[in-house]
Amino acid sequence: MQKHTIIGTAGHIDHGKTSFVRALTGIDTDYLPEEKKRGITIDIGFAYWKDSITIIDVPGHEKFIKNMVTGVCNLDFTVLIIAADDGIMPQTREHFDILNLLEIKDGIVVLTKTDLADKEWIELVKEEIKDLTKGTFLENSEIFEFSAIDESGIREIRNHILSWIEKNSEVKPSLGIFRLNVDRSFSVKGFGTVVTGTVVSGSLAVGEEVELFPQKLKTKVRKIQVHQKDVSQIQTGDRTALNLAGIEKNETKRGSVVSISEFLEPTLFLDTQIQLLKSSPISLQNRMRLRVQLATKEVFARIYFYGQKELKAGEKAFAQLRLEEPVVCLKNDKFILRRYSPEITIGGGKIVDTNPPKRKLSAPKSIETLKTLEKGTPQELVENLILHSNLDPIRTSEISAKSGFEISKVETFLTELEAEEKIFRLGKKSKTAFYHSENLISAQRKMLGLVGIFHERNPKSLGIKKAELFSKLKQIALPVLELALEKLVEEKKLKQNQNSVSLLSFAITLSEEEQKNYDKVLVSLEKFGVSTPNLEDFSKEVGVSSEQGKIFLDLLTEEGKIIWISPKFYLLKSKLEELKNKTLKFFETNDSLNVTDFKELSNCSRKNSIPLLEFFDSIGLTKRQGDVRIRN
Questions:
Q1: Three-class secondary structure assignment of 172-213
Q2: CA 54 and chain centroid, separation
Q3: Beta-bridge partners for 225
Q4: Domain 5-167 belongs to what architecture?
Q5: Strand 77-83, strand 107-112: pairing
Q6: CATH assignment, 179-259
Q7: Quick check: bond before 342 cis, omega within 30?
Q8: What is the DSSP letter of 429?
């Protein structure tokens, strides 16, 4: 498959970018009526050169910088256009700053309008260009001369670009999830909505299901075109048009993202690394409102720095951007920062975390975490994403989306981390998620602490109800709590009683008098048989207060000596076992059992017989059929 190359222009207004593209390709990229009328480029324009090269022409006017960023966000090669008669102008510098902030790697400089300047002046401008590009990706690039009047120089420029393409013809691997940043959308009669953009990563085929973000609209790809020709599949780097089924034109716009549904999640918070330009006329303070240009989308945001309150020109820092509308992106995506007003480019940066958990802005640990996320090894990055996943297990697809690594790589890292016992998995197959061992240990500590506090406050209770314990830790996912409890029991730190959880070392200490009453309770329960009284009558019979009576019943319940048949009816476990055996013996000679039969064999009242039969149904001893029970 042939590599698709995206080439973009950059430069000040009226420096001849569109004329240069026309000479190179024979195509006029100004398509808007207002562009024709005013003679300037307002929006990005496209020219197709040969079968695998797209030229993106960007506007040079300061009012249309956001359109310029949209055009250059996915370039392979750039042509910095500078008019010989004007030399370097404000938008020359701003465009060049943007190219550097977006980390464009290759390009050339074209000096246009050479027919309007003498040779001496042109040499002075070239020296000025060398000063501008020193220490940048264009430092050693060619500076070509070109005139649109007679198209002198275009052949040399064309040959140079084609030579560069030939040397860089290796097809980019289509790794990662499919993503396309939409830069245009329109309707085609008889086909419906079409969106265009450059494939940032992954591959896509006709008929596949995709999702439009941040709108979260699911759709299918009906048709794909590259260079106005139908194709069955596209890959990383392709400039393409997608015909989407069931999507209205007003449902999509520039700034939308086409991707695979399970991977991306819209976010209003981004942890980032910010670079403020040396030429920035302002420093940045916490809470300052800025314009953020992320690929083809512009959004307003407020900035909050980690570990500092201000960023001065030329400095770098970690910061959180709190956006005014949701975006979708991946780690390491680049963005441009522009002043809210007046609109000028002041810096840029890259995404470090797309859906960050709550982090203290002033905490040194937060900065250390961000440093690892930004520069750590791939395995360290995956481990940190699991460690900081808001106490919730995180799925493989989420790790892929947050890290930018393809699924197969993520799975390799997960296997390595599991072998080192740094993480563990919960669930099975498609529901598998991962949790960090440090977070499990933290959950265990919290659990032990809560059980200990319960014992201090309730010395006459055998333990805390499991549901109550888990509700106090509701910020932690239920599967993690179950695993934490299971491991604490295995490690002989906790024990599970019938309905509660207690420290293994805990035992209720009864005074001499309480022990006598406890023994009296057991004798009384034997005497009550299957006709146990309510709490108040039980307490009177035993000769204790209702409060003490409840403590004894709770203790006997946790010890497993009494079983609650219903909220108000309980039996000694030994009596219940007797009833179960009598019921089974009854079925040896009978096919069914009704309430009257059960009353006779159990000596229970009808009031207690019905809940007992329902209890036997619930434990699988019997099964109800109409008005009778059969053996289950």
A1: CCCCCCCEEEEEEEEEECCCEEEEEEEEEECEEECCCEEEEE
A2: 32
A3: 230, 241
A4: 3-Layer(aba) Sandwich (3.40)
A5: parallel
A6: 2.40.30.10
A7: yes
A8: G
Summarize pLDDT for 123-142 with one digit per residue, the tens: 999 999 999 999 999 999 99
Q: What is the largest CA-CA distance in the chain?
A: 121
Same fold, 389-509 and 513-631: yes
- Rounded CA separation 235/201 (Å): 7
Q: Which of 455, 453, 398 has its CA nearest to residue 431?
A: 398
H helix or E strand, kind and range, residue 525: helix 512-528
Q: Which residue has the higher pLDDT, 271 or 393?
A: 271
Query: What's the pLDDT at 37?
Result: 44
Question: Exposed, middle or buried by CB within 10 Å (0-12, 13-18, 19+), for 401?
Answer: buried
The single residue listed with the structure tokens 């396309």 is: 180
155-167: buried (b, 16+ CB within 10 Å) or exposed (e) per residue? Answer: eebeeebeebbee
pLDDT beyond 70 at 174: no
Can you read off the two tokens belonging to residue 511? Answer: 């005074």
Give the pairing of strands 628-631 and 622-625: antiparallel
Nearest residue to 157 via CA among 112, 121, 110: 110
pLDDT in the model for residue 430: 61
Tokens of 349: 């940066």
H/E stretch holding 257 reads strand 257-259
User: What's the pLDDT at 30?
Assistant: 55
Q: How far apart are CA 259 and CA 204, in angstroms?
A: 9
- According to the model, what pLDDT value does residue 571 have? 87
**Residue 63: DSSP 8-state:** G
The pTM of this model reads 0.70
Q: Please report, as a single letter, which amino acid is at residue 359.
A: R
Output 68 or 284, whichever has higher pLDDT.
Answer: 284
The residue among 593 and 568 whose pLDDT is bigger is: 593
Q: d(Cα 353, Cα 240) in Å, to the nearest integer? A: 28
CATH architecture of 513-631: Orthogonal Bundle (1.10)
Q: Is the peptide bond before 378 cis (omega within 30 degrees of 0)?
A: no
Comparing 3 with 30, the larger pLDDT belongs to 3
SS (H, E, C) 439-459: HHHHHHHHHHHHHHHHHHHCC
Secondary element (H or E) of residue 366: helix 364-375
Classify residue 265 by burial, with Cβ atoms within 10 Å: 0-12, 13-18, 19+.
middle
| Among the listed residues 336, 338, 305, the one whose alpha carbon sits nearest the alpha carbon of residue 319 | 305
Per CATH, the architecture of 267-364 is what?
Beta Barrel (2.40)
Looking at domain 389-509, its CATH architecture is Orthogonal Bundle (1.10)
- Angle (deg, nearest 10), helices 90-101 and 65-72: 40
What is the distance between the terminal CA atoms of the chain, rounded to a whole angstrom?
66
Cα 359 to Cα 86, 271, 368, 371, 381: the distances in Å are 49, 10, 11, 14, 17
The domain spans of the chain are 5-167, 179-259, 267-364, 389-509, 513-631
Phi and psi torsions of 12, nearest 5°: -65, 155
pLDDT tens-digit readout, 488-529: 999 999 998 777 899 998 888 878 887 888 888 888 888 888
Retrieve residue 608's tokens. Answer: 């207690």
Residue 114: its pLDDT value, please?
Answer: 94
